[in-house]
């Protein structure tokens, strides 16, 4: 009687799997390098001399020109970079507060309350997401101009308190629909009305969606250029985004180095804000309707 030995079939199968993982990791690493290259180029160009910014395609500068940051910190049009940073923070903070408050209130009405024409109104609100921003810019400008609010921060902040961002309303609605209604019923038994139920029960549980709204609002408002260019005229009211354009107009090609240095300064608050709340961003996206 003879016995035969067989080699495990799993060993050959593991080799293709390991190569697949290695290829996947290599592809992800290559994609990461491609996405990070613009950031690396921005950081390197911010310390390049003026003659190397346009003439040289090398990533690393021939010599470090730290005076670019000194020039950027001086500001533009006799306005310091601290003033520009404060203006940007004021607009972004007001937009965040307005969107979080108004969009959460509108979402609570659509998700938890029963009222007439709720379905058609919600559908109409969702349809406004497809409406281009430029289509309503001229009517809005006419309204704010008649109210005497042009060249102020009100046109950039006030609409956020009117729940005009349908995307964030939809985001919070989808999150609130996943909350159990027994919580509101228990609060109603304890004597809470709709507003107290919203502020004491629903709002704390909606924190991931609210932080997601705050992050996107902050980033979009901070990077907004076109709307700020339309409504702001005075240099002392400029934001960092508008100051970058003024930097090029004021000094022509010789200001490219300081302009990129100011771009790095303008990028830092966004990076810090995102790193501080990225955990809540992932949680909010995972528990809302954005996941599909």
UniProtKB/TrEMBL annotation:
Give the domain of life. Bacteria
Supply the CDD domains for this chain: TM_PBP2
Q: Where in the cell is it found?
A: Cell membrane
Question: According to its UniProt record, what is one Pfam family this protein matches?
Answer: BPD_transp_1
* Family annotation (SUPFAM superfamilies): MetI-like
InterPro entries associated with the record: MetI-like, MetI-like_sf
Locate the transmembrane regions by residue number.
22-44, 89-110, 122-144, 156-176, 197-222, 255-277
Q: Where is the signal peptide?
A: none
Residues annotated as domain ABC transmembrane type-1: 85-277
Q: Which UniProt keywords apply?
A: Cell membrane, Membrane, Transmembrane, Transmembrane helix, Transport
- Membrane topology per the record? Multi-pass membrane protein
Q: What family does the database annotate?
A: Belongs to the binding-protein-dependent transport system permease family.
Write the protein's name.
Answer: Carbohydrate ABC transporter permease
Organism listed in the record: Streptomyces ossamyceticus
């Amino acid at each position: 009687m003879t016995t035969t030995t067989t080699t495990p079939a799993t060993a050959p199968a593991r080799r293709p799997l390991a190569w697949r993982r290695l290829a996947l990791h290599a592809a992800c690493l290559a994609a990461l390098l491609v996405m990070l290259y613009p950031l690396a180029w921005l950081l390197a160009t911010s310390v390049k001399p003026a003659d190397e910014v346009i003439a040289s395609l090398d990533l690393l500068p021939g010599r470090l020109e730290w005076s670019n940051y000194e020039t950027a910190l001086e500001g533009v049009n006799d306005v310091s970079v601290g003033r520009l940073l404060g203006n940007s923070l004021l607009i972004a903070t007001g937009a965040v507060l307005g969107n979080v408050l108004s969009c959460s209130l509108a979402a609570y009405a659509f998700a938890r309350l029963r009222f007439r024409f709720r379905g058609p109104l919600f559908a109409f609100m969702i349809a406004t997401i497809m409406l281009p921003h430029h289509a309503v810019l001229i009517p809005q400008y006419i309204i704010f101009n008649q109210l005497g609010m042009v060249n102020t921060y009100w046109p950039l902040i006030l609409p956020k308190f009117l729940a005009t961002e349908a995307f964030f309303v939809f985001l919070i609605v989808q999150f609130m629909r996943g909350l159990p209604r027994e919580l509101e019923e228990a609060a109603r038994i304890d004597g809470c009305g709709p507003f107290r139920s919203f502020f004491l029960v629903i709002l704390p549980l909606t924190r991931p969606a609210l932080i997601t709204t705050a992050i996107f609002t902050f980033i979009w408002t901070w990077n907004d250029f076109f709307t700020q260019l339309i409504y702001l005229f005075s240099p002392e009211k400029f934001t960092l985004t508008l100051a970058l354009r003024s930097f090029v107009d004021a000094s022509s090609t010789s200001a490219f180095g300081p302009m990129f240095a100011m771009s790095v300064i303008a990028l830092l608050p966004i990076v810090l804000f995102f790193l501080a709340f990225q955990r809540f961003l992932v949680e909010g996206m995972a528990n809302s309707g954005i996941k599909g």
